Records
---
Amino acid sequence: MGPQTVPATSNGYGLRHHDRPTATPMSGCNLGPVTRYLITGGAGFIGSHLAEALLVQGDEVSVLDSLSTGRFSNLAGVHDSPRFSFTQGSVLDELAVDQAVRGCDVVVHLAAAVGVKLIVEQPLYSLTTNIKGAITVLEAAHRYRRKVMVASSSEIYGKNNSGPLNEQSDRVLGSPTVARWAYSTSKAVDEILAYAYYHERDLPTIVVRLFNTVGPRQSPAYGMVIPRLVRQAVASEPLTVYGDGSQTRCFCHVADVVDGLIRLLHEPRAEGDVFNIGGTEEISIQQLAELIIVTTGSSSSIVHLPYEVAYEVGFEDMARRVPDVTKVGKLTGWRSERNLADILDDVIAEVLRDSGSQSWTDDGSVASSTSLSRTVPDDA
């Protein structure tokens, strides 16, 4: 099925892509008074927040999304903007991508198969979406000379448990028979394609490696740990922790991630390069589960689930994943402003709204997580 563009005449979403005049090629930070952005996967978690932020700063935004994992409801806050348009279509559809790219100045390519659960259960879909999708987007961007930001992943680093990981840290992978490392390889191919287009075709490209982005609108459906644990806690269900829970991660609020993306989009020196974006506050998953129980005031217990039960036999996880974000900080001044407590407050508030609950503490209020040092064990 071809692209389905929401008509401007029926609901105020703005012009269709093919109704727009061809954009002038853009590069660097001199994007003019109004920049027309295309966000692939823009109905997803990160993409919808990025769309809102770009519209707030006065730009135009078009979204191309198949809605296979994204949700149209994520775009509720921008529905009525005359500077916003939405097309339901896949990045695997060359015609849909061509039309969308032709009508923009800058492409932010976020469309991808995401989440460990989806990757493990549908490896062929994940590989096809990530690699062919990136090829289709980059080819169209080259055809119309559009600047492209390609979203990559911390999965690039594989089983490299050293840290913090900088952009030149080694990739340490397991067997290609393990679906997780196939996904990591697909994102590496995306990056290599972006670098090749920059060096061989003079196409302005930027690669961003995102580390565990969290916040409102993130679905727990594909194995995202914080939304899943929060929902379990709010429902007074046991919190399921995979393995022994000693694996550590860092989390970054989606608002901070969006800020980093926009800073890089406006920085010409970012072109042709790669940047980590993520939080640096390290915590084990066991401690995270304990913190969520305390913060929600839940009576839930914690149960440990072996990886082979949660995913598949032979599944491999990383003991530690911590980003080094020095590079993006030096270039743009970016740093994450919100801590884990802020992230949990926002996610819990959303879950409570969705569940219709008003409180989870004895005094009728959501337990505050603003003083993380009082609730996180000393060895976090």
---
Amino acid sequence: MHPAIRSHRAQARSYNLPRFFRHSRSMSVNPAPARGLLGDTTVRDYSEKLRRFNAFAAPELRRAIASLGLTPGLRVLDAGCGTGEALGWFAEHVRPGGTVVGMDLALPHVAAASARSDAVHADMLRPPFADATFDLVWSVNVVNHLRSPVEGVRTLAALLRPGGRIALGQSSFLPDMCFAWDARLERVVNEAVRAYYRDKYRVDERGLTAVRANVGLLRAAGLQDVQVRTYTMDRIAPLRPEDARYIGETLFRDSWGGRLRPYLDAADFTEMENLCNPAHETFALTRPDFHFLQTFTLAVGSTPL
């Protein structure tokens, strides 16, 4: 048996989780290799990127969780839990007596999340849980990775008890504001980023912007009483270390950087490169007029009672 399977099965037993799993299939923590719309596989690892985002967005994510009005005793599934920071945040609301479980396709993510709470390795379209198990399914920045997001939402809805809720969260419905002092440069950089990802994942503009359709996905999957709220994440200089790492490393270095050179003219690329370079005198994060704005939108729907 694969050591990861043995480890996570043992962990599930220690928390009395097997009662949640389908009797018709084993607890598969090592699903067949899959490749999602955005390149996800069982071995793809972007744990550090997830940690940076969760540390950056923690104040708003925790407010969004608090808005759900959870009470002790409820069962929560984080579908696409990544490195698992939200598992602890949910535990604060549903314990004692409640249960929080994470599920992710990538083994490295599951390993990280398991240090915080229960986490299983599974494909979202083939969850190992029994129907009508959970009171809430939370899924952030995940369903846009699926080739059939409506199928994914329907699959998750089947895991809910009557009256249970799905909460779909997504960041950056609106373009991020990085260069508040230069709207033109910001616009061409955002366009370059979209062009880069279209080419990388071989999707068209409609494929990228489908991420904004969470309200429609919930309704198409039969959820009722759909509600939506958008949180703004404003960050100004001087930045918290968590904010500086996310903006400077995840966005400026890892998402932008040299990969945007083919998509910008030479002058714009040089200006962007200087603004993103901590060693340059124009480094954006130390400017007194730096103002970063990103959105986080939470759409929530319920199953019939």
